[in-house]
Specification:
This is Zinc finger and SCAN domain-containing protein 20. Pfam families: Myb_DNA-bind_4. InterPro entries: Myb_DNA-bind_4 (IPR044822). By secondary structure, the chain is mostly helical. It is 58% helix and 0% strand. The two termini are 15 Å apart.
């Protein structure tokens, strides 16, 4: 969510593009465990825009944070990756 209380809905295509960019070795190397490097998020925003998706740095940062949180929840629930908890909404 943004600070104004509006929901920030991402389409499947946007999420896939974000994951592809995020998984790029150059991006991963720059992140190296930090979440405070705004230049990395600007780079991701630019690359997403090049793919036709306009998102702010904050939208990208929050989406990445939420994706990590959801992944951890799935892994913790199942003691292993890839299987969502029963009854979870994956969208």
């Amino acid at each position: 969510m943004e600070g104004n209380g509006e929901r920030n809905v991402w389409g499947d295509g946007e999420v896939h593009v974000l994951l592809d960019i995020w998984g790029d070795k150059a991006i991963l190397d720059k992140m190296d465990g930090t979440s405070r490097n705004s230049q990395i998020y600007k780079t991701i925003a630019k690359r997403m825009e090049d793919c036709g998706f306009t998102r702010t740095v904050n939208q990208i940062k929050y989406k990445m944070k939420n994706l990590k949180k959801e992944y951890r929840k799935y892994v913790d629930h199942n003691n292993g990756p890839l299987t969502p908890p029963v009854g979870s909404n994956t969208h």
